[in-house]
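Field log, afternoon session.

UNIT: design team B
ACTIVITY: writing a sequence onto a fixed backbone
BACKBONE:
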C-alpha cells in the first residue's frame, strides 16, 4: 500500500471554521498529514474547535498522539478543542494512559 493510499483512508474535513469531521484509519502513515491539517484548521477557528470522531474506524497510538498534539496546539493558540463521539477503543486507550482529564472525557 502506498503512502498516498493510506493517507487517503483518513480524512479531516472542515464543515465550518469551528467544526471538523475526522474519519478513517488513524495510523503513522496518515498522522503527519492530519497533524498539519488540524493545526491549520485550529489556527483559523475563532475561539474553539470541535472534531467529530464518529467515523474513525481504526486508531493506533498515533491517533491518540495526534489528538493530544491538537489539544496542546490549541492551548498555545488560546483555543478550546473538543472531541465528540470518541470511539470506545480510543476511550479505553485514553483512560488506560491516565489522560481522561486531559481529553475532558469525564
Amino acid at each position: 500500500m502506498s503512502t498516498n493510499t493510506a493517507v487517503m483512508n483518513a480524512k479531516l474535513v472542515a464543515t465550518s471554521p469551528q467544526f471538523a469531521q475526522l474519519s478513517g484509519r488513524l495510523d503513522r502513515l496518515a498522522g503527519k498529514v492530519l497533524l498539519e491539517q488540524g493545526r491549520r484548521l485550529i489556527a483559523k477557528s475563532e475561539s474553539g474547535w470541535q472534531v467529530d470522531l464518529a467515523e474513525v474506524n481504526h486508531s493506533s497510538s498515533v491517533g491518540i498522539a495526534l489528538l493530544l498534539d491538537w489539544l496542546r496546539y490549541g492551548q498555545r493558540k488560546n483555543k478550546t478543542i473538543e472531541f465528540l463521539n470518541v470511539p470506545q477503543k480510543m476511550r479505553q486507550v485514553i483512560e488506560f494512559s491516565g489522560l481522561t482529564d486531559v481529553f475532558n472525557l469525564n
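LOG NOTE: The chain is about 45% helix and 30% strand.
NEXT ACTIVITY: expression trials, pending approval
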